[in-house]
Amino acid sequence: MKRIYLDHAAATPVDARVAKAMQPHWGDRFGNPSAIHKEGVSAKKAVEEARGSIAHHLGIHADEVVFTGSATESANLALFGTVGAWRRSHHKEVPHIIVSAIEHDAVLESARKLEAEGVRVTWLPVDRRGVVDLGVLKDALTENTVLVSVMYANNEIGTIQPVRDIAKVIRKWKKEHRQMTRDRKVEGDERCPLFHTDAVQAANYCDMSIPRLGVDMLTMNAAKIYGPKGVGLLALLRGTPLEPLLVGGGHEDGRRAGTENVPAIVGFAEALRIAQEMSKKESKRLVTLRDYAIGELRKIRGIQGPTLRINPQGRTLYSGPSINGDEVVRLPNNVNFSLPGIDHEFLALQLDAKGFAVATKSACNETDAETSHVLAALREADGTDLPQSGIRLSFGRSTTKKDVGAFLSVFRDRVKFAANVNRKI
Known about the structure:
Elements: E1 4-5, H1 16-22, H2 38-58, E2 65-68, H3 71-88, E3 96-100, H4 105-116, E4 120-124, H5 134-140, E5 145-149, H6 163-177, E6 194-198, H7 210-213, E7 217-221, E8 232-236, H8 251-254, H9 262-298, E9 309-310, E10 316-317, E11 322-323, E12 334-338, H10 344-353, E13 356-357, H11 373-382, E14 391-394, H12 401-424
Parallel strand pairs: 1-13, 3-4, 3-5, 5-6, 6-7
Antiparallel strand pairs: 2-8, 7-8, 9-10, 11-12, 12-14
């Protein structure tokens, strides 16, 4: 049975060109990049060339790229690092951070831990499309706001946030409260609030120019862009105050101790180069597949579960799968939908048995499979009792219209089966 993989938001295969670029550094070029001998210098050169290549694609300086072991570590470094740096000079004050309600757990759990340590946290709500409320953000900013963290594109529902508009709100606040102008350059913790974005899911398809986005820090992961697992990065502008999480070697200019993963870093750079090269053409292709899938899903009827729609005449209606997230301003490869009266985890397992790899939510959140904090936030915003769980399809470079059609065919059969069971009950 042919397997059809529709979970590229969780992991992507390593591109053959990436594997080829990495291969020499597994064997012959094995040196420690901190060593002063020929082998070490060669490894150091490979790391710095990769750093320069990544910086070029992000529109920043090479020394503004800090390699980490994952995107999770990068997000932790952004939150704990900036709050730690601020606390060094504000011993008696309570720091404040703002994070959106639909962040990846790498950000949410970091924020919760900081909250338990006395940091004041504002949880920024979203509307029914999953877009943050800029008015709430503006009102939430204070003199003690250290950091705002809003992800570029959501890993579950694919909604793309107005990052540039968020940056404008923060810049305007700093201009009014910090007197930040072109004539007066603010430094150190006076630069707060800093703006961090988790761009892990955006890197394949969205503009990754940090100057155009207006962010201070950006998180990425190679494993989501057809690169190797086990390497991420935190891009941060020069002068950004940051307390390191890992100490013991002074690596990465003292911002992240630990011997650099040379082959993975080399692969990261090649993966980003390829992703940026393919971005426009691949986005266009995947948008067609995404919209085809959403259109076909909307045609499906037949299940009646605990969630029913009632029209003004009092007749019970079923509107089929509900599409989660903004249907236009979303990642080209993302389709997320919910079905009333359906156990989505069981449905995903049924589809897996039929040869389709799909997800119910983020692969990084293993608890409470039938509840998504992202969908819970959307339901709170739209005031409905639609399910707080769903099915996520995330397409990739290998996905074809034939693959999507095959999924839809099997999915329709599952829907008919469930409908028949419900009728008998």
